[in-house]
């Protein structure tokens, strides 16, 4: 059932831990293999301009050692990153906004504001790699602008939803879920594959996995954190189970609609 939703594990924070001591361990490539062996569909890694976690050689080694698996490279829309993507040939490139001072990717890419410059960049990227995804807010205008760029996929930012769950603000949780549901359906209607990610945990992921139009989840921090206590393979399996719980709710809802 989980296969309805591809789980990509973001391994950035394995590199964060390694870089904290300047050692060669823990190795994100070893982590990537453990995740795939435990049932993840793919690996996601963000090569930031400041190289604060994943570094160029990590991407090259992951690409070389997982040739038949899906490698999703997250990157900013810069000429430097375009050259790397063209050379490394990840299976998917996800364009994300990037600011040096941020702790993690905050907010989605402004596709509307990116205008002709972003459109030209996406055109070059689309011609260079198999699949392009844009990390955006579940916002009508952004989703339509992404579709107009003829990308294959959008990834909806679930950070606000995750914050609302943590803050136990049930009204905000419902509102954010509604935005994600409407946005995912719009994306699907416009012919886009719809992924989602950011801030997802075993506790808050079922409601996201229950959204029928969502076909992929990119999850990092929670899985790597859980791995400290239960091992990485177990953390991946527990996340898959939590996603399955959400997918089962899809089927229950469909069944209920058909059987009032
Ligand atoms: N998707 C995108 C585009 C991201 O930038 C990130 C964080 O790097 C994630 C998913 C994963 O977020 P988290 O680490 O909070 O699970």
Bound molecules: pyridoxine-5'-phosphate
Report the principal-axis shape: globular
Pairing-aware structural class of the strands and helices? Answer: alpha/beta
| Continuous helix count | 11
CATH superfamily: Aldolase class I
Percentage beta strand: 15-25%
What share of residues is helical?
40-55%
Task: Strand order, main sheet: write it out.
Answer: 1-2-3-4-5-6-7-8
Question: Compute the gyration radius: what is it?
Answer: 18 Å
Could you report the average pLDDT, rounded to the nearest whole number? 94
Number of domains: 1
Helices and strands, in order, run as EHHEHEHEHEHEHHEHEHH
Low-pLDDT runs of 5+ residues are none
By DSSP, the count of extended strands is 8
Named CATH topology? TIM Barrel
Map the helices and strands.
Elements: E1 6-10, H1 12-21, H2 28-37, E2 42-46, H3 56-65, E3 70-75, H4 79-88, E4 92-95, H5 111-126, E5 132-136, H6 140-148, E6 153-157, H7 159-166, H8 170-189, E7 193-197, H9 205-209, E8 214-219, H10 221-230, H11 232-258
Parallel strand pairs: 1-2, 1-8, 2-3, 3-4, 4-5, 5-6, 6-7, 7-8
The chain binds pyridoxine-5'-phosphate.
Pyridoxine-5'-phosphate binds at residues 10, 12, 46, 74, 94, 96, 104-105, 135, 155, 197-200, 218-222.
Short description:
With 260 residues, the protein is an alpha/beta fold. Helix content is 52%, strand content 16%.
